[in-house]
Specification:
Length: 124
């Protein structure tokens, strides 16, 4: 009984550590903007570059950029792309906002798992 009482705190600490590790999410790729702080202007072409960094070997498909009130030009990205660990892609894009207070939505699949990112280019 004494041995059980002495080992119980260690078991509880191990359980807590496993619980914390279970909450950590692994993102296979990270997508950021090269010029993240530049706001868009009504009716003026907005240009930026999506920087895609892969943290493992993955397949990216169906990369799409859209937004209510935005006229988005096609992305220079094929429908299906293998990216290796450490590989960085830079994908230029341009769009003309009718209302820059409406966000752009970037969506894609990584290894058949859906991902989405909101890009806010408003003045605020």
């Amino acid at each position: 009984m004494k041995r059980l009482i002495l080992t119980m705190p260690a078991l509880l600490l191990m359980l807590a550590a496993v619980t914390v590790l279970a909450d950590v999410r692994y993102e296979p790729v990270e997508i950021t903007l090269i010029n993240p702080l530049r706001p868009a202007q009504v009716g003026e072409e907005y240009q930026d570059v999506l920087r895609v960094e892969s943290f493992g070997d993955h397949v990216i498909t169906d990369l799409d950029l859209s937004g209510q009130g935005w006229k988005v030009n096609p992305l220079g990205f094929s429908g299906h792309r293998f990216v290796g660990k450490g590989e960085v892609l830079e994908i230029p894009f341009s769009a003309v906002p009718g209302n820059p207070d409406q966000p752009l939505i970037l969506s894609w699949y990584v290894d058949d798992q859906y991902r989405e990112m909101v890009i806010d280019r408003s003045q605020a």
